[in-house]
Specification:
mainly alpha, Arc Repressor Mutant, subunit A, Tetracycline Repressor, domain 2, elongated
Length: about 210
């Protein structure tokens, strides 16, 4: 038997409201104490939902972190695309355009280094079929494809090589932002480290 449209609409609105409350609770608690200092029970209490309800939206604390960070990651990529696109249109070098794309992403991940570090680790090494990881990986592939597009400005590099270079650059980003060596570095320091490696691979003799 089909349910009444109004009833379906109410259920969907209730689900959206619970998801919003869970997201807001997790975001604020992770910002206050870091993901390691927060329990799923505390998130459910602040969101005013049952713990079982919370687990229907995210099955673990790691998935909660991914759910929260995915939105920040998506916004950072969008912001970077605007800036890098404008630079590229004005004839900027591939190095400058790529760094303009990456700068908001680095700021996003380094806003809370421990949270960002765990986010990247879980995104890469967790189950890629899990809903929130799948969404995060889709954003990572979008970032990589955007880097490859900006590499059109590099002379004498064919499309296959651009894709490979983009994969190398994303690997550099991941290692630099998760390595313990750089854990206490400022976002500016991280950008300089990534820029130096980016320059080395873009302008090496071919």
């Amino acid at each position: 038997m089909n349910q009444e449209p109004g009833r379906v609409g109410r259920r969907e609105r209730a689900m959206a409201d619970k998801r919003r409350r869970i997201m807001e609770a997790a975001r604020s608690l992770f910002a206050e104490r870091g993901v390691g200092g927060v329990t799923t029970r505390e998130v459910s209490d602040r969101a005013d939902v049952a713990i079982g309800t919370l687990f229907r939206y995210a099955a673990s604390k790691a998935e909660l972190l991914i759910m929260v960070q995915n939105e920040k990651f998506r916004t950072a990529i969008d912001d970077g695309l605007v800036t890098s696109g404008a630079l590229s249109a004005r004839g900027a070098s591939a190095e400058d355009a790529v760094m303009a794309l990456l700068a908001p992403v680095i700021d996003c991940v380094r806003e809370q280094p421990e949270n960002g570090r765990l986010y990247l680790h879980e995104l890469i090494f967790g189950d890629p079929g899990e809903e929130h990881r799948s969404a995060g990986l889709a954003e990572a592939w979008r970032l990589e494809a955007s880097i490859a597009e900006l590499l059109r400005a590099v002379p004498d590099v064919d499309p296959d090589a651009r894709a490979t270079l983009a994969r190398v650059i994303t690997s550099i980003i991941h290692v630099t932002m998760t390595a313990t060596l750089h854990l206490r570095d400022s976002p500016g320091d991280v950008k300089e480290v990534i820029r130096s490696q980016l320059a080395a691979i873009l302008w090496m003799p071919r």
